[in-house]
Amino acid sequence: MRAWCRPLLGLAAALLASLALAQEPLEGLPAEGFDHYTLALTWHPGFCASRSRPPRECREPELREGAERGFVLHGLWPSLPERFAARGVDRRRWWREGCFLETPRPAGSFCRAHPPLELPAALGEALDAAMPGRASCLGRYQYAKHAACLALPEAGYFSASLALLERVNASAFAAFVILNQGGEVGRNALINAFEAAFGEGTGRALRLECRGRGNRLLTEVRIGIDAARLAEFPAAEGLVRQDRGRCATRVRIATFD
User: For the whole model, what pTM was predicted?
Assistant: First the structure.
């Protein structure tokens, strides 16, 4: 084992033990004929730095507050459902269109076309803090595209998403990313940090997304989770292999000035 992994393993054990004691149990979600979820988490400074026309959540300081403390929520994406596959929809088309295959996306502004989510006040406030993109109606878009056609209740879907985000942000993997913000690390070092936090071989369930020149700027991480074992996350047995992402061998982890 590489020497730098040993302290990460100890940190991971401590973090996960405290997390198990401190958190409410994560409840599962119904899985209507699909195999797994992809948990998409954004590294907010990298996302903002990669945009030629930064959205509101990048321009307004209060929406960037706390970004140095971990990932923020992009979405929780079910894999291709059997009923769509039976109609000839392939995985690529499902990722591109999702539930808009059944309910076409309205023209014009998504914020104006879709009513606000019906969430309990406390959940809405927590989602505001964890998903800066809600300022641009990201929450409404994510639910309409990935969950509305699959009998996933709004409150349950976002409660589970927040619980998953919290578990990642309490891990030694997130600690490694936070520690190295403003610098550059090897792509394999990120994968090794993930395995140090969640178990040997789990790096296959991690997809790293990078943008910018040479795909060197970390913008997002995606984690595959067995739909039937969502409540067990981050147990290694419930993680699902992801396709390889698009990051160079050296990765820059941006920070806000």
Answer: 0.89
